[in-house]
Model the fold of this input.
Amino acid sequence: MSEVSESAVCGIDGCTPATSDHFGLASDAKATLVIEVISDAICPWCWIAKRRLERAIAALAPDVAGSVTWRPFELNPEMPKTGVDRRAYRSAKFGSWQRSQALDAQVAAAGRSDGLVFNHDKMERTPNTVDAHRLIWLAGQQGQQNVVVEGLFAAYFNEGGDIGDPAVLAEIGASAGLDRARILAMLASDEGQAEVRSELQRALNLRVSGVPTVLLDGVPLFSGAIRADLMEAELQKAAGYVRR
Done:
């Protein structure tokens, strides 16, 4: 299995192997970690990283707790509002459909080790993800971000849903306990646009060029879907905590 199939970080130009580069630790480490994850809803390694981060945080309990907030990133900032045909888009981006399929196979193999099932054959479109990020923003106001983020990943990668479609987004949100009518009204308006754009700019200001990127107290800590034990070690150091 190639290195990129073990862990990766995804940027505008594609996914590359995660490195061991770290960005420094918070100077005032504490037992409750304020964690943010910058990600995109169509980043496959972000779904894998989510599962690994959950395991890492669980391994630190009860000595260290972690709150997680999800922040937006656009892998395809020039994507049309309605999205594009995935096969045509990926073939152009990676040089051929065969190359795209090989990359998909690497992701699927890595996901299986974390209990995730990628059904790339069901995925027909590559969507614009701004509305998905708006849904995540709305979910954050109701304490349901994690459930919505999981729903978006599952809908896209496992079920092949078009997560740029308001009806699909409303179903994901409703399944997480959000009001369907409220979601559809938001998506039909400009609500959340400014907030999402502000967070996208913040990621640029932090020089985030690929996702997933994990922040601690607002400072980038590591990037990529690194192994759960490595995430745990980074969080331990950040908390000033040594497991005994």
The CA atoms of residues 72 and 101 lie 26 Å apart.
